[in-house]
Sequence to fold (122 residues):
Amino acid sequence: MRRTIFGFVFVTLLMSALFAPRLVAADDQQDTTVVSIVEPAGGTPQDWTYVPGELSVAVGTPVTWTNTGAAPHTVTSDDGVSFDSGNLDSQASFSFMPDSPGTFSYHCAYHPWMTGSLTVTS
Fold:
């Protein structure tokens, strides 16, 4: 009986040590929506775009834009107030966590034909 209890306690502690950190880490992570700033190979600057161009997230969901191109870009809300990444050099990122619902149109200040839309739901 004593050996069975020891075995049960040992297995319980071992399982806790193996799986508890993963469960805690998963709970601490928050989903992030990623948008790429893309300059298609062989294209012209007019082909540069945000991918995806339109997205929808819940309030509190972080959105991260990453400049995957070579030229600098921005992520600037059309209202000029909600968010503005400033200059994003190649491989630089900008994150925004919306705290209220709404639709936010945005553009690149350097390349105004580059536009996108972020819809935030409650």
The first helix runs from residue 2 to 28. The radius of gyration is 22 Å.
